[in-house]
């Protein structure tokens, strides 16, 4: 019992001690908390003071021009943004609100100043690229003049021209990046677009590229227009290979990391210049058509098509979709214009006046023009196949370019048939057809068109030429050969032979006289017909020497045997008569020599 009482007594004493100490502990804890609150308040005040000091320091910089020190200015902007974040996140009261208001004012001023600085630096650095600088970017040639007159080598490695002094690019990039923090990037994009767009326009203007209309192109002289097309092709290549890639590279450097902005800025900065450049091609494609214009259109089509992959590459991205569309639209317009020009030409051939014929049966200017036209078209065979989408139909017939070439030739042949009928001398009409079809065959055979139309087509036309030659012999020399016919002479010749043999009697003598006079008349008729034909046909033309020689030979092979036979059979009746040489004017050799003078007009020298 005694131990238990002692323990109980100790517990009561300890409880009394705790009760006595508790107030003191409470006071100590309160003092500790008060000290901690004071410390935290001091730290908060220090942070406020620090940010207020930063605002004051930044203010002195912001109120100055950014051009005095861009780095310090950008640092001041960073400090203001930090203060803005601080005062926005803390509830400090009126002092904090006032500070935040001042920070916002300073940031707005900073944004305006940075815009001005960005515009100033970009404008001062953006100068039109001189022609000499562009020429230096092209592969080296023998002289600057050669470079100016020549087109860039498609396979050569080109160095891009410097659009802005590289020393200023980092500054512009920093300014552009800061615009994002300040929320004024749209203004920066507009400044960049306007400045670079006008500079690029001036560069192209120095090269002679401006917006043109179809009416302006139409009024230009042909020589001037052709020269402008050649120049335009060079400018197009320079723009696509040098200027636009340089603009893309500059845009990528200044708006680094901002892909959507880069594409937008580049598309906006180049769109007007691209349209100005393409406007000439559009104007040419819409201007009044003429047959020769197709070669200009095909030249332009070839060059724009060659550059299409580079256009697609430099104008990649959704933002540049309209630029790509503008370029591809021009390619399509040039193709359609070339196609329409050929179709219109074919129609005009058919409608060409049938009265416009040559007086000597020579190759008609239309025939030679179309022949050469087709030959030159073959230089653009690959492009024309693309334009006409050449394909083979299920029935084995060909369409596309083959059809167009065949159509041109058929149109000429149709027109020639009509013209041939205008000749009063049927033989000359036939000679005209023979000359012209022969010219077409030779033109096609000497060009790549022969592979398109095929051997069968050529052989059919050669047979047509031969048929015309045969018909010519029959029509032109039929009356001459009729004079050498024995028809109607046989009975008279029998009586004449008896008279020559010494038959007596008035009937026999009369018969002999009559027979001789008939033979003389026939010789005389032959001489007249032969001389008329030769005299007339000496002024006719067969410009193809091989065809001429073959035709004369063919006539001789018919005429000379007939003449020799007639001379041998009926010559004895005349040769002993008075003035026999008046009737038997020609020996076979003399005939052959005279035939050699046929178609002497326009003989190749």
Automatic annotation (TrEMBL):
Domain of life of the source: Eukaryota
Record has Protein transport as a keyword: yes
Segments forming domain Exocyst complex subunit Exo70 C-terminal: 230-595
Signal peptide: none
Sorted UniProt keywords: Exocytosis, Protein transport, Transport
Protein's UniProt keywords contain Transport: yes
InterPro entries per UniProt: Cullin_repeat-like_dom_sf (IPR016159), Exo70 (IPR004140), Exo70_C (IPR046364)
Pfam families from the UniProt entry: Exo70_C, Exo70_N
Molecular function GO terms recorded: phosphatidylinositol-4,5-bisphosphate binding
Functional summary from the UniProt entry: Component of the exocyst complex.
Stated name of the protein: Exocyst subunit Exo70 family protein
Organism: Aegilops tauschii subsp. strangulata (Goatgrass)
């Amino acid at each position: 019992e005694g131990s238990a009482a002692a323990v109980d007594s100790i517990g009561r004493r300890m409880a009394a001690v705790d009760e006595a100490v508790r107030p003191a502990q409470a006071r100590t804890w309160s003092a500790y908390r008060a000290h901690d609150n004071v410390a935290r308040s001091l730290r908060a005040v220090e942070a406020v003071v620090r940010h207020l000091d930063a605002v004051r320091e930044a203010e002195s910089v912001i109120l100055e021009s950014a051009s005095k020190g861009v780095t310090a200015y950008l640092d001041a902007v960073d400090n203001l943004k930090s203060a803005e974040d601080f005062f926005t996140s803390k509830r400090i009261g009126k002092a904090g609100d006032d500070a935040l208001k001042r920070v916002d004012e300073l940031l707005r001023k900073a944004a305006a100043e940075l815009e001005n600085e960005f515009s100033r630096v970009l404008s001062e650095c953006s100068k039109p690229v001189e022609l000499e600088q562009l020429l230096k970017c092209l592969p080296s040639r023998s002289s600057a003049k050669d470079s100016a007159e020549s087109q860039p080598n498609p396979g050569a490695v080109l160095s891009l021209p410097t659009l802005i002094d590289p020393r200023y690019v980092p500054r512009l990039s920093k300014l552009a990046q800061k615009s994002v923090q300040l929320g004024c990037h749209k203004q920066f994009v507009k400044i960049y677009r306007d400045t670079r767009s006008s500079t690029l326009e001036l560069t192209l203007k120095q090269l002679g590229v401006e917006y043109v209309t179809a009416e302006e192109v139409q009024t230009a002289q042909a020589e001037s227009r052709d020269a402008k097309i050649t120049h335009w092709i060079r400018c197009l290549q320079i723009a696509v290979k040098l200027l636009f890639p340089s603009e893309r590279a500059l845009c990528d450097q200044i708006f680094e990391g901002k892909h959507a902005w880069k594409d937008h800025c580049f598309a906006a900065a180049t769109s007007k210049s691209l349209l100005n450049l393409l406007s000439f091609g559009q104007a040419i494609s819409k201007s009044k058509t003429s047959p020769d214009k197709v070669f200009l259109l095909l030249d332009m089509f070839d060059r724009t098509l060659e550059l299409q992959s580079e256009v697609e590459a430099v104008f990649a991205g959704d933002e540049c979709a309209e630029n790509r569309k503008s370029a591809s639209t021009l390619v399509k317009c040039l193709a359609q214009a070339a196609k329409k020009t050929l179709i219109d030409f074919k129609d005009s051939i058919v409608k060409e006046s049938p009265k416009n014929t040559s007086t000597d049966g020579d190759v008609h200017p239309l025939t030679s023009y179309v022949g050469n036209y087709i030959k030159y078209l073959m230089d653009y065979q690959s492009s024309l196949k693309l334009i006409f989408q050449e394909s083979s139909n299920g029935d084995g017939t060909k369409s596309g370019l083959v059809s167009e070439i065949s159509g041109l030739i058929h149109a000429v042949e149709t027109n020639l048939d009509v013209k041939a009928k205008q000749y009063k001398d049927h033989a000359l009409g036939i000679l005209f057809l023979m000359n012209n079809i022969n010219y077409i065959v030779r033109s096609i055979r000497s060009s790549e068109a022969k592979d398109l139309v095929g051997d069968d087509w050529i052989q059919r036309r050669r047979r047509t030429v031969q048929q015309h030659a045969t018909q010519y012999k029959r029509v032109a020399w039929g009356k001459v050969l009729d004079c050498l016919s024995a028809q109607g002479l046989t009975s008279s010749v029998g009586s004449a032979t008896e008279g020559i043999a010494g038959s007596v009697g008035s009937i026999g003598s009369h018969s002999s006289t009559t027979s001789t006079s008939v033979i003389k008349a026939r010789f005389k008729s032959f001489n007249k017909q032969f001389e008329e034909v030769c005299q007339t046909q000496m002024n006719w033309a067969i410009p193809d020497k091989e065809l001429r020689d073959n035709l004369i030979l063919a006539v001789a092979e018919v005429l000379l045997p007939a003449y020799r036979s007639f001379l041998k059979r009926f010559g004895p009746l005349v040769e002993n008569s008075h003035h026999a040489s008046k009737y038997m004017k020609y020996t076979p050799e003399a005939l052959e020599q005279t035939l050699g003078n046929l178609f002497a007009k326009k003989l190749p020298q």
